[in-house]
Specification:
Distance between the termini: 28 Å
Helix content: 10-25%
CATH architecture of the largest domain: Sandwich
Structural class: alpha+beta
Radius of gyration: 34 Å
Number of helices: 13
Low-confidence stretches: 5-21, 26-30, 670-709, 720-729
CATH class of the largest domain: Mainly Beta
Number of strands: 40
Largest sheet: 6 strands, mixed
Mean pLDDT: 85
Oligomer: single chain
Shape: flat
């Protein structure tokens, strides 16, 4: 049996054939195949039914569909054709043909079952028709359609009285239901958010929809935190009169309470069973916290400082920030500016900290605090925050050491790891605080005037863009986000073989954003001649991850609904090592330098004794397998071999072929390991590229993680709906 629902379907009008047209052939039908459909209990959300075919050996489909869609069809054959098209589309997402898919869903003999999770007061059809498995599951009987209407849900006769007591930005809610046996759920949320989600200009949700959405959000959040469903339900649903509390609400903000009765049946289906009662209240000022700070700034350099913030209470939440100081703004003014700009984020729990913040670079500290600019005034500020400001701010100011003019900075650039298509450049700077941008090119491509103008225009554009979001963003901050300073090692790729390369560095004035110095490095390097070995890539086959089902790779969840694409690499005579990868899209017409650049970061070693690549891929999506070999004589990579594939239902191969191949490889290796070294099975595979696990970093495919039991949920503490994740209807 299958439940199919269609929110909106439109169809072209179908007309009867004209007398001149030949009638369509009627598919073969088992003589006299009919169906007796008997409806059992119909509730507001379910239906019981029994299907009795006249031929107990005949295969058939039993499908539930909404009545409005069914009644749009003028003939049953068009209805069936559409149902089969939908099923085929679903089958393709699993890498299955319609025939393979239906083999698991057809019924035979007497069927006694039920459909659940139906909408109340809604019309449905129970559709039953015979199919012929020997003829691609084509329709082979009359279509039986049984219409029914789910019952109206009888709402509970219950009301709720909510008495809200506000204490600063905390609140208590005395909830009293008129029926102490009714299960109820309570939620409080800023009225602005409450109104927004129900606005026609936003999500246009009804009150019931929004309340259920809030409930769903909370359940999912608690599931994500590791709580089981039983614990969650016991914590967030209540019976009888109860006082709940919420703290750290947004200060001076109107909130809306929502509460309603629910029915939870034996199968765990949660149903809103009463009207949603609402009430509002306004929070006061944030409660003052018994919290102080010790802020220290020592060992100030041109672009670093040792900063440490020690709160008196390790559990209290606070905000701290470092920024450029204009020399006049008070701590209170800076705090007010921070709250005005970022208060919404802080109310959602972001940008808040607790415990010691140590950026001194000493034991237990990751590093000294990195600053954007030399010879600049800075502040460090800290203040308590929990729905609003809870303490007075504490601020320390300091001045970074001056640095030589950017034009006085001396750079050095070296090249290493030179290949036909890439090299690694090492940059050293005599002044650690000078911002710069490096580059390499062929000497004939270098145009200092044009390139300087382009860099300066780019800096100005980035600054303007950033200041649209935050007017306080400084030029130094932008330079810190997008440009280099200090010593760096940088990979450059996409070069032509046997080509002379020059290097250049543009030093940037951090106060103006202009190029202060251009330093070039002629004849930095010459890319090498490619090795003589260019591997060939042979496509072996695409296989169904559903059919594999963990039998080969031991991770059925990783391969479920996916394809497994297999390639073989050959022409390896004279090679010292082999590297492979798989990238999304058809890349057959790209040059070797272009492919090298695109595949940077994805190349991984592949066993030359077992030169196969196994990749988890997506159905109906193009991929290109790439391979290069390192020449044993010259030590240089050669040309890049390539082959494309697009896993489809049509080119899917017998899973036994994959099983036999892996068994053969394992037997040849005379080892107990169960997978070829190049296997890629991972839950986090990107659509654009699949990174191969190397032999040095093999994964455990059946590794188990230890689950840490989450803390007990405080049942009387209300989930505060300060932030609701956006969604799309």
């Amino acid at each position: 049996m299958m439940l199919l629902t269609a929110a909106t379907l439109s169809f072209a009008a179908c007309t009867e054939p004209t007398p001149e047209q030949k009638p369509e052939p009627v598919p073969p039908q088992p003589e006299g195949l009919t169906f007796e459909v008997e409806l059992g209990e119909v509730t507001y959300s379910s239906v019981d039914y029994t299907v009795t075919p006249s031929d107990l050996e005949a295969e058939y489909l039993c499908i539930l569909y909404d009545a409005a869609t069914v009644e749009e069809f003028t003939q049953d054959k068009y209805l069936v054709a559409t149902l089969l098209q939908e099923l085929e589309a679903e089958a393709r997402t699993e890498g299955m043909t319609l025939v393979e898919f239906l083999a698991d869903y057809t019924d035979k003999g007497i069927l006694e079952d039920s459909f659940t999770n139906l909408a109340s007061e809604s019309d449905y059809y129970l559709i039953v028709f015979g199919v012929d498995p020997a003829n691609n599951y084509e329709l082979c009987s009359e279509v039986s359609k049984t219409k029914f209407t789910t019952l109206a849900f009888e709402k509970l006769d219950v009301t709720f009285e909510v008495e809200t007591t506000v204490d600063g930005n905390s609140a208590e809610f005395a909830v009293t239901p008129s029926d102490n046996e009714v299960i109820w759920y309570f939620y409080t949320i800023p009225t602005e958010t409450f109104d927004y989600y129900q606005s026609p200009d936003a999500y246009d949700m009804s009150l019931d929809q929004f309340f259920l959405y809030c409930l769903e959000q909370q359940i999912n959040q608690l599931r994500g935190a590791g709580y089981d469903d039983n614990t969650i339900l016991n914590a967030i649903f209540h019976k009888g009169a109860l006082t709940l509390m919420a703290k750290d609400l947004t200060a001076n903000t109107e909130y809306t309470n929502m509460v309603a009765g629910f029915v939870i049946d034996e199968s765990g289906v949660i149903t809103l069973a009463s009207d949603v009662a609402t009430s509002t209240y306004v929070t006061g000022e944030a409660k003052a916290a018994d919290l102080t700070f010790e802020v220290s700034v020592t060992d100030v350099e041109m672009d670093r400082a040792a900063i440490k913030i020690t709160p008196s209470d390790d559990k209290a939440t606070f905000c701290w920030m470092v920024g450029a100081w204009d020399g006049t703004m008070t701590a209170e003014a800076i705090m007010d500016e921070i709250v005005a700009m970022y208060g919404g984020w802080m109310n959602a729990g972001m940008m808040l900290y607790s415990g010691v913040q140590d950026y001194t670079g000493g034991p237990g500290s990751p590093y000294k605090y990195k600053l954007d600019a030399p010879d600049t005034d800075y502040y460090v500020i800290a203040f308590g925050y929990a729905g609003g400001v809870t303490t007075a701010p504490v601020m320390e100011t300091f001045h970074t050491l001056p640095a030589p003019d950017a034009s006085e900075t001396e750079f050095n650039m070296t090249a290493s790891s030179i290949t036909p298509y890439s090299l690694t450049i090492g940059v050293t700077s005599s002044v650690a605080s000078t911002y710069y941008t490096p580059g390499v090119c062929a000497p004939g491509e270098f145009d200092e005037e044009v390139m300087v103008a382009e860099v300066e225009a780019g800096i100005a554009e980035i600054l303007e863009m950033q200041q649209q979001f935050d007017p306080n963003v400084t030029l130094s901050q932008v330079l810190g986000m997008y440009f280099y300073k200090g010593n760096y090692t940088i990979d450059a790729s996409g070069m032509q073989p046997e080509t002379t390369i020059m290097g250049y560095i543009f030093a940037i004035d951090h106060k103006t954003g202009k190029i202060a110095k251009v330093q070039t490095f002629e004849n930095l390097a010459t890319t090498t001649k490619p090795g003589d070995v260019t591997p060939t890539v042979e496509f072996i086959g695409n296989y169904s991850g559903n059919e594999e089902n963990g039998a080969v790779f031991g991770q059925p969840d990783a391969t479920k609904g996916r394809a497994i694409s297999v390639f073989k690499y050959a022409n390896l005579d004279g090679a010292r090592s082999l590297f492979t990868t798989l990238l999304g899209d058809n890349l057959m017409n790209y040059t070797d330098p272009e492919l090298w650049k695109m595949a940077t970061g994805y190349w991984a070693s592949c066993s030359m004794s077992q030169p196969y690549g196994f990749y988890v891929t997506d159905w109906d999506y193009e991929y290109t397998a790439l391979a290069y070999a390192v020449d044993a004589t010259t030590g240089q990579p050669g040309g890049i071999g390539r082959e494309k594939t697009m896993p489809t239902v049509e080119n899917k191969q017998n899973i036994q072929e994959l099983i036999d191949l892996v068994n053969e490889l394992n037997a040849a290796e005379k080892s107990s390991f169960s997978l070829p070294q190049s296997i890629v099975v991972s839950e986090g595979i990107s659509l654009s590229a699949v990174k191969v696990e190397t032999a040095e970093n093999n994964v455990e495919f059946k590794a188990e993680t230890k689950a840490v039991a989450p803390a007990t949920i405080e049942a009387n503490v209300v989930k505060v709906g300060g932030y609701i994740r956006p969604f799309y209807m």
